[in-house]
């Protein structure tokens, strides 16, 4: 085999966004595997993984558990994915491995306005705990096999291609297009960082083909309230919409991430302004919805 890039979880939001840009940047063959072609939850996947990777492979792991209402099942699947990848690269060494974790490893239940890579690990969700377990098992294997490993902990990622309808930019835009309204919990003043998908792709590619290794929080360093996001949407969305306030289901929590380590690694990097990212996302979703209506008559 020659040099190549393999993306595990290539049918998901992040994995799918990475495929074409990786090929354009690296000029290497890029192969994507989703759950239908390489089911990382099944122990049988280890042999298959060993067949497709070698010492010239850059391995990007974006795979996640299946959508399920059972958090224990999701936890088991997340741990299984990381364990099977670790077992595979322990048997067949790769050139470099990038593993997508989450900021939830620091916890989601308390306000923290100074999150860095040195912040204490204290997950308050099974998802955060599972991702940290994945980090640990991959670190153990990577160190033993001397495989350069990069762990990426992204904040909330948004943009074209996201079908999750999660609370925040994507969920708000989808609700505006379908119902003409946005639903906010409480007064909407809690602070969060939001990373545009194109920025995440650029960061991932630059780190993948550098000599860097280690853990990086992926965030802009600028936190906006959900109320501020709604105000920006009023500027970029060419239609009126209603804001509906709902009772909070959880206590108000603010977060701010300091991406000093990331910017030290990529000093020339410039993030997409939130207003621009929202505008591009709206245009994409609006076009897709128009196509959907035409298709369904």
Protein described:
- It is a single chain.
- This protein has 297 residues and is α/β, with parallel strands linked by helices.
- The protein has 2 domains: 4-157 and 195-218, NAD(P)-binding Rossmann-like Domain (Rossmann fold, 3-Layer(aba) Sandwich); 159-192 and 222-254 and 273-295, UDP-galactose 4-epimerase, domain 1 (Alpha-Beta Complex), CATH 3.90.25.
- The chain is 42% helix and 20% strand.
- It is built from 9 helices and 13 strands.
- The protein has helices spanning 13-26, 45-52, 71-91, 126-145, 169-179, 197-208, 226-236, 260-265, 274-295, and strands spanning 4-8, 30-33, 57-61, 96-100, 112-115, 149-154, 156-158, 181-185, 191-196, 214-218, 223-225, 242-246, 255-257.
- The strands form 4 sheets. A 6-stranded parallel sheet has the order 2-1-3-4-6-10, sandwiched between helices.
- Helix 1 links the parallel strand 1 (4-8) and strand 2.
- The longest helix has 22 residues, at 274-295.
- It is globular and about 55 Å long.
- The termini are far apart.
- The model has no long low-confidence stretch (mean pLDDT 94).
């Amino acid at each position: 085999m020659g040099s190549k890039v393999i993306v595990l979880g290539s049918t998901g939001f992040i994995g799918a966004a990475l495929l074409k840009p990786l090929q354009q940047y690296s000029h290497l063959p890029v192969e994507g595997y989703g759950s239908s072609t390489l089911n990382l939850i099944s122990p049988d996947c280890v042999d298959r993984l060993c067949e497709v990777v070698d010492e010239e492979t850059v391995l990007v792991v974006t795979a996640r558990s299946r959508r399920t209402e059972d958090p224990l099942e999701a936890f088991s699947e997340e741990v299984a994915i990381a364990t099977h990848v670790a077992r595979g690269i322990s048997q067949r060494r790769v050139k470099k491995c990038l593993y997508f974790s989450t900021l939830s490893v620091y916890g989601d239940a308390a306000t923290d306005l100074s999150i860095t890579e040195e912040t204490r690990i204290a997950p308050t969700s099974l998802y955060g705990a599972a991702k940290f377990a994945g980090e640990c098992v991959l670190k153990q294997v990577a160190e033993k096999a001397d495989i350069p490993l990069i762990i990426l902990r992204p904040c909330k990622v948004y943009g074209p291609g996201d079908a999750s309808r999660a609370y925040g930019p994507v969920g708000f835009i989808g609700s505006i297009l379908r119902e003409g309204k946005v639903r906010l919990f409480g007064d909407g003043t809690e602070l969060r960082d939001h990373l545009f998908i194109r920025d995440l792709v650029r960061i991932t590619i630059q780190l993948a083909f550098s000599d860097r290794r280690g853990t990086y929080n992926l965030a802009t360093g600028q936190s906006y309230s959900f109320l501020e996001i709604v105000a920006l949407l009023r500027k970029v969305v060419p239609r009126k919409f209603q804001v509906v306030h709902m009772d909070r289901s959880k206590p108000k929590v603010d977060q701010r991430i300091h991406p000093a380590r990331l910017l030290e690694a990529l000093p020339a990097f410039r993030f997409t302004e939130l207003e621009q990212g929202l505008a591009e996302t709206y245009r994409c979703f609006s076009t897709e919805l128009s196509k959907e209506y035409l298709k369904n008559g």
